[in-house]
Amino acid sequence: MADQHASPESQLVQLSATDLVRRLATGEVTAREATEAHIARIEAVNPTLRAVVATRFGDALREADEADARRAAGEPLGLLHGLPITTKASFDVAGLPTSLGLVRQANARAAADAPTVARLRRAGAIVLGKTNLPQAAMANECENPLYGRTTHPLSALRAPGGSSGGEAAIIAAYGSPLGLGSDLGGSLRLPAHACGVASLKPTSGRLTMAGHAEVFPGLEAIQCQPGPMARRVGDLALAMRALTAPDSAPGDLTPPLPWRDPEASASLRGLRVAYYLDNGLFHPSPAIRRAVREAANALERRDAEAIPWQPPDVAEAFGLFVGILFADNLRYIRELLYAEPIWTPMWPYLILAQLPNWTRDWLAGLADLTAQRATARLLRAARARSAEGYWQLVERQARYRERCLESLAAQRCDVILCPADGLPALTPGASAYTAEAASYTALYNLLGMPAGVVPWTTIGPGEESDRPDTLDISQRTAREVERGSAGLPVGVQVVARHWREDLVLRVMRALEESRD
């Protein structure tokens, strides 16, 4: 599978964010040179990729000149001085629209930066523009009626994942060295896996969601989190140092553990890593299972101990995740999409939300009779709830979290290694029928634990699929996704206990070094 964007015009765009910041600080590279190189790269790849949907190139060049003047004058330099970056379209950037891919919000320009964007800019970053996302930011794809479809950087026949799909695509295509995305059920990690880049979802509540377009306003049981994306793991740590800078931004919690630099201890000696290849709900593609097995072996070669482990009843956990998100019957999302052309793979769920619970129960029974197991599970989980019914879900979520953490404690493990997704980069429209493939990421949103994805391998010839032919539409769609997937990237997911992002990044860095 040939990379359509494999020949960057400038070597500057191939540098990691960390390396580029180092050269910017010494004056080896000017901020204008770095900014011009990335603008040129975006202009070269974006006509086919369609990842960057709003730009501020003129302002970026002006800010680059100001950054160069500050360095020349010997002024103190920020952590990200002169670094070009991009952000997901759901974050407010002053002067640019925050649309969620909705036509009626095409000109809804933000008056100020989101606190997370402001932190990156105060550290010296230069925002080039905003990147595409699925309509209402609710799909593992990247398409909407306002900006169109973002394609995968390796194949126009594949989606880059979602909802931070545009961000992953432009980083993979060398148009940006560092980006800001967000993650409610895998929206940072799924596209990172699909596109072959790295990402980090922090512990729930670590970073504020102020200045991010609302999809589930008031939802606290499952918290969306901002997080960085880049081609190298070290760049994620660099971004997190800027994002966790203390500035009393609204919405931030006070973590019981302050931000720890993952470089403080690079050794894995004595670290016990729980790993699993299959969560028992959705069987991963062969290369995905191979990737986790190889990564576990690589960690053992670095003196860690890999312990086979299985999270308790992932079917129950994913049902809780779906149930909590559907508790209001998708009322707010349906209001967002009112009178909008529907360009989202969520359309079956929007139809489902129109049905009374008794009809869903009847359809679930029919689905069982016709061997549509995944559909039956979804129908039973996605119910309209009373306030009491919602509280019961949240109580069950708390009990499930206790069981999971107790299981990890019994194995004396602080880190988990597992698939990032059940499938490689999807074909357009497939996410509507393969929701359970995202259970590998959604589990850790339900639990609120920090999790990251690091690129590991590609799908080899002859290992595209070993999925049996069944009547289940979810599994049949999965087989179609797997067909022709040789050459696509495969990432692995690393998870740690709450507030231990440093462990996530340390293990990810070790895997990156083993892969290199």
Output the keywords.
eleven-stranded mixed sheet, alpha/beta, Amidase signature (AS) enzymes, globular, two-stranded antiparallel ribbon, 516 residues, 13 strands, single chain
Brief description of this entry?
With 516 residues, the protein is α/β, with parallel strands linked by helices. The chain is built from 17 helices and 13 strands.
| CATH-scheme architecture | Alpha-Beta Complex
What's the helix-strand series?
Answer: HHEHEHEEEHEHEEHEHEHHHHHHEHEHEH
The first-to-last residue Cα distance is: 21 Å
CATH class: Alpha Beta
Corresponding CATH superfamily: Amidase signature (AS) domain
Task: Tally the helices.
Answer: 17
How much strand content do the residues show?
A: 5-15%
Query: Nearest-angstrom radius of gyration?
Result: 22 Å
| Order of strands, widest sheet | 1-3-2-6-8-7-12-13-11-9-10
Describe the structure.
The protein is globular and about 75 Å long. The model has no long low-confidence stretch (mean pLDDT 95). An 11-stranded mixed beta sheet has the order 1-3-2-6-8-7-12-13-11-9-10, sandwiched between helices. The chain has a two-stranded antiparallel ribbon with strand order 4-5. It has 17 helices and 13 strands. The chain is 39% helix and 12% strand. It has a single domain, classed as Amidase signature (AS) domain (Amidase signature (AS) enzymes, Alpha-Beta Complex). By secondary structure, the chain is an alpha/beta fold.
Annotate the secondary structure layout:
Elements: H1 17-26, H2 31-49, E1 52-55, H3 57-72, E2 84-88, H4 115-122, E3 126-131, E4 143-144, E5 148-149, H5 165-172, E6 178-183, H6 189-195, E7 198-201, E8 225-230, H7 233-243, E9 272-275, H8 286-301, E10 305-308, H9 314-325, H10 331-336, H11 347-352, H12 357-369, H13 373-381, H14 387-410, E11 415-419, H15 439-447, E12 451-458, H16 473-482, E13 489-496, H17 501-515
Parallel strand pairs: 2-3, 2-6, 9-10, 9-11
Antiparallel strand pairs: 1-3, 4-5, 6-8, 7-8, 7-12, 11-13, 12-13
